[in-house]
Amino acid sequence: QVQLVESGGGLVQAGGSLRLSCAASGSIFSINAMRWSRQAPGKQRELVAAITGGGSTTYADSVKGRFTITRDNAKNTVYLQMNSLKPEDTGVYFCDANITGLAATMPVREYRYWGQGTQVTVSS
After folding, report:
1. What is the DSSP string of 70-120?
2. What are phi and psi of 85, to 5 degrees?
3. How far, CA to CA in Å, does 76 sit from each of 10, 107, 115?
4. Which residues sit opposite 24 in a β-bridge?
5. Which of 27, 69, 88, 113 has the smallest set of CB atoms within 10 Å of its CB?
6. pLDDT by residue (tens digit) across 82-101?
């Protein structure tokens, strides 16, 4: 089965940096778009950054110039480098990806998989 696992979250001071990682594992034929979203308590989930299979990126206005999304296709991993962190960046960060799995050596229909989330807390 396919799964995504985030790592790299934690507690950091305002102005500091963190790098989140999200690795996909399982029987994977291909990975298309990969994304990072976040959700603060009592708030709606928002898209933070996205990257296509070709490497094109999209960022929320609130993180432009501070966050960078990258991917390593050889490792089936997407990263989110977060610099100049602010308390407003606090929340649970989730990754998701559009993945075509592999069953009996045959590709199956693309499906959107989600990780379990990792907590990021920025203190002032």
Report:
1. EEEGGGTEEEEEE-S--GGG-EEEEEEEEEEEEETTEE---EEEE---EEE
2. -65, 145
3. 23, 16, 13
4. 4
5. 88
6. 999 999 999 999 999 999 99
Percent of residues, the chain, with pLDDT higher than 90 = 94
- Name the band, by pLDDT with cuts 50, 70 and 90, for residue 105: confident
Q: 18 with 82: CB under 8 angstroms?
A: yes
Neighbours of 18 (CB within 10 A): 20
**Nearest of 34, 51, 42, 28 to residue 59 by alpha carbon:** 51
The letter for the amino acid at 15 is: G
What average pLDDT does the structure give for the chain? 96
SS3 percent helix, strand, coil of the chain, rounded to 5, is 5, 60, 30
Euclidean distance between CA atoms 118 and 55, whole angstroms: 24
Q: How far apart (Å, rounded) are the C-alpha atoms in residues 41 and 33? A: 26
